[in-house]
Amino acid sequence: MNPGLLLLGGGAILLVVLLAVMVLGTRSRGDVAERLDRFAGRGSEAAAEARPRKRGRGSSVLAAQIDRAIAGRGFAARISRDLAQANIKLTVSEFLALRVISVIAGVGIGYLVAVLRGGLSPIVTGIIGALLGLLAPSLAVRRAKGRRLRAFNNQLGDTITLLANSLRSGYSLLQSMEMVARESTPPVSEEFHRVVQEVGLGLSVQDALANLYRRVPSDDLDLMITAINIQHEVGGNLAQILDTIGHTIRERVRIKGEIRVLVAQQRISGYVVAALPIVLALILTFLAPDYMNRLFNPIGLPPFLGGNSWFCMPVCSLLLMLAGFVIIQRIVNIEV
User: Fold this and answer.
1) What is the pLDDT of residues 141-161, one digit of tens each?
2) Is the pLDDT reported for residue 29 higher than 80?
3) Residues 63 and 96 in one domain
C-alpha cells in the first residue's frame, strides 16, 4: 500500500466533505417573494426568472449565474419540481453541486477501496463509485417523494372528512383548510398551510389548489380538487360531495393496503434476487480478489468482438438482472 496515495485519497474525501458542508451552510435563505415564487408561483417562467435575483450574502456568484443559465431548461424545471414534491429545500444549482460532489466522493471512495484492498483495478472501482455517486442523489429524492406521497394519500381520506364536517358546521372552504392545517399532521398540515398562505397573499383558491396538486401529484387529491372547482362553478352541496369522495379514497387506501400485504413476499423476492449476485460479488471481491479479477481481466475473445472486451460478461449479467427486477416489479404493481 502506498502511504502517499492513501493520504491523497483521504485528503480528497475530506475536501469533498468540506465542500458539501459549505454548499449546505451557505445556501440561500431567500426572502418571502422568492419562497412564494418557488412554492406558490406566478407561473413557472416568472418563478424561474425571479429565483436567482436575490440570494443570501454568503452564496456565490457562480451559483446565481448557474441558476440564471438553467432557468428556462426542461431538466431544471423537472429537478425543481422533484425537489418541491420531496419537500427538500434546495435550489437546482445546489442539487447539481451536490451531485457533482457525490460523484467525486464516489470516485475517491472507489479508489481508496482499490488501494486498501489491493488486487483491484482503481479504474473499475472508480467508475463504479462514480456511477453510484451520480445515482445516489436522484434515488434519495425519488425515495423522499414516494414516502411523502404515500403519507399524504393515507391521510387524505380523513382530511376530506374533516373538511366536510367543517363545512357543515358553517365554516367557509378557506376556514376549513386553515383548520386542517392546524389540526392535522405533516405532510397534510404543511401543504394546506401553504394553500392558506397563498390565498392570503393574493392567489385564488383554484390557483392555490393547482399549485398543491403540482407539489403532490396524487390522483385522489386531483379528484378532490376537481370536485371543489366544479362546485365553485355550478354550485351544490360540497360537504356531501366531499363525504362521498372521502369514503371512496378510504376504500381505495384499504384495498391498496391489502394488495401490498399479499404481494409483499413477491416484492421482497425481487429485491433479493436482484441484490444477491451483487452482494456475493462484493464479498468475493474482498475475500478473494484474485478469483474475481478473472472476471474483469482481458480475455481472449475473437478479433471481431474487440479482443479485449472484458466487460461483456459483467455488463450482460447486470442487464439481465435489471430486466428480471423490472419484470417482477411490474407484475406485483397492481393498480387500484
Assistant:
1) 999 999 999 899 889 988 999
2) no
3) yes
